[in-house]
């Protein structure tokens, strides 16, 4: 029996069996109060001095594992207003003195991450992450997408050479993938609409609350889609993920994470505003007193100022070509900008999705590669996709950890994944 089921049933006087760990324990002369946890929640169990299991209960320490039988009763002072009057106790393992107490530094908690995963906030965050992934699969499956995998080890780069992790591959040099996109663009000529949920690697020496060197990307690529269709698909995905998380975890978000879930409702209820890069610069200048030179990418501070004007994610489109990747299609009539977009999330979470319509003309791609100092010969397989039946197509990538950070309201992206990897954190 999981603890959540007890609170759902609320059958006073019924005897329940639960398995779990000691979350907190308080010992008195004639009573032992155990707050027990499992993956679904916590409940208080009481063993008094008249119980034959009182002495065993008195031996327990935090994080000891046990199996408990007890009769349910109401207790306003207990978590959730219910507690079990213990009738049987089976100790599975008495833990040693648990190294995590109160007021430890973030660095120490990172060192013992394998134990800190047991905290209620991290447990809740990982539940939200799992639900988000489930929702992603639901969304794409309902729209006729096929799940498609590409290699983690790749011979070419797509997002910038300075962010590549180089790997020795026998006597060759390869790279950990920055994106599945280039192989995926080959896949659409077979399956048309494809997606993936996969780890991604960026060698960015950034220590901000929004960056990891290893993170998970949800990427989609669609044959025959134009720019607006791609944006609508990505917006629908965000809405579905937020909706499913609120359906399954609203209570935990509010009670454990202290998250104001009302701030997420506009994301479900409203269409996301779509503004051009030019409009974004105008808003920053006239509404936020921030002037950005045309052609510069938006920095974190500028994104935060812009998103603060809205209560949903905002979609910025038509970025200058100079700040975007070689595969993005030029905007008709404006060759200096591309049909690229960024979804910026509220509350300082920054970009959660980047997408674009792809350039289908091989000559344009070759010219862009050369302009960026790349040798087109290194992209032979990619250029082949434009030689044999090239079609209009578009795609996007969504950063899972950034979405989880935003939805849960946590302070750092490092807590949106079980074992974060950063430039100075590779253990445990």
Give your account of this protein's structure.
This protein is α+β, with helices and mostly antiparallel strands and 428 residues long. The protein has 2 domains: 3-93, OB fold (Dihydrolipoamide Acetyltransferase, E2P), CATH 2.40.50; 113-416, BirA Bifunctional Protein, domain 2. 31% of the residues lie in helices and 28% in strands. The chain has 13 helices and 18 strands. The protein has an 8-stranded mixed beta sheet with strand order 6-10-11-18-17-16-13-12. Strands 1-2-3-5-4 form a 5-stranded mixed beta barrel. A 3-stranded antiparallel beta sheet has the order 7-9-8, with no helix packed on it. Helix 5 runs antiparallel to helix 7 and helix 5 (120-142) packs across helix 13. The two termini are 32 Å apart.
Share of residues in strands? 25-35%
In DSSP terms (H or I, runs of 4 or more residues), the helix count works out at 13
Broad shape: elongated
Tally of distinct domains = 2
Q: Largest sheet, order of strands side by side? A: 6-10-11-18-17-16-13-12
Identify the CATH class of the largest domain: Alpha Beta
Estimated radius of gyration: 26 Å
Report the CATH architecture of the largest domain.
Answer: 2-Layer Sandwich
Low-confidence stretches: none
The overall average pLDDT, rounded, is 96
Helix content: 25-40%
**Roughly how many Å apart are the termini?**
32 Å
Under CATH, the homologous superfamily of the largest domain reads Bira Bifunctional Protein, Domain 2
Q: What is the CATH topology descriptor of the largest domain?
A: BirA Bifunctional Protein, domain 2
Number of strand segments: 18
Structural class: alpha+beta
């Amino acid at each position: 029996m999981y603890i959540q089921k007890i609170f759902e049933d609320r059958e006073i006087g019924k005897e329940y069996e639960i398995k779990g760990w000691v979350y907190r324990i308080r010992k008195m002369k004639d009573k032992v109060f155990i707050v027990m946890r499992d993956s679904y929640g916590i409940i208080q169990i009481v063993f008094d001095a008249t119980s034959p299991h009182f002495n065993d209960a008195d031996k327990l320490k935090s994080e000891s594992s046990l199996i408990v039988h007890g009769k349910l009763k109401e207790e306003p002072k207990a978590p959730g207003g219910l507690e079990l009057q213990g009738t049987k106790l089976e100790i599975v393992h008495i833990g040693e003195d648990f190294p995590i107490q109160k007021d430890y530094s973030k660095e120490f908690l990172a060192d013992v991450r394998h134990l800190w995963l047991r905290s209620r906030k991290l447990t809740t965050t990982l539940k939200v992450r799992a639900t988000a992934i489930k929702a992603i699969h639901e969304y794409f499956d309902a729209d006729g997408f096929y799940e498609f995998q590409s290699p983690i080890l790749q011979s070419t780069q797509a997002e910038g050479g300075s962010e590549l992790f180089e790997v020795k591959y026998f006597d060759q040099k390869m790279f950990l993938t920055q994106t599945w996109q280039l192989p995926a663009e080959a896949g659409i000529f077979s399956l048309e609409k494809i997606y993936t949920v996969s780890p991604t690697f960026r060698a960015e020496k950034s220590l901000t609350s929004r960056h990891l060197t290893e993170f998970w990307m949800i990427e989609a690529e669609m044959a025959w889609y134009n720019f607006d269709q791609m944006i609508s698909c990505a917006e629908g995905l965000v809405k579905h993920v937020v909706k499913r998380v609120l359906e399954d975890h609203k209570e935990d978000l509010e009670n454990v994470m202290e998250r104001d879930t009302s701030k997420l409702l506009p994301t479900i209820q409203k269409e996301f505003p779509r503004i051009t890069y030019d409009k974004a610069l105008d808003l920053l200048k006239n509404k936020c007193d921030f002037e950005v030179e045309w052609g510069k990418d938006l920095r974190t501070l500028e994104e935060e100022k812009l998103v603060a004007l809205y209560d949903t994610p905002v979609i910025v489109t038509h970025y200058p070509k100079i700040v975007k990747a070689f595969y993005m299609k030029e905007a008709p009539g404006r060759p200096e900008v591309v049909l690229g977009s960024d979804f910026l999330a509220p509350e300082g979470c920054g970009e959660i999705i980047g997408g674009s319509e792809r350039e289908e003309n091989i000559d344009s791609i070759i010219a862009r590669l050369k302009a960026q100092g790349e040798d087109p010969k290194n992209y032979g397989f990619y250029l082949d996709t434009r030689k044999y039946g090239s079609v209009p197509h578009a795609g996007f990538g969504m950063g899972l950890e950034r979405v989880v950070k935003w939805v849960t309201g946590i302070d750092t992206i490092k807590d949106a994944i079980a074992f974060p990897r950063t430039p100075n954190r590779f253990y445990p």
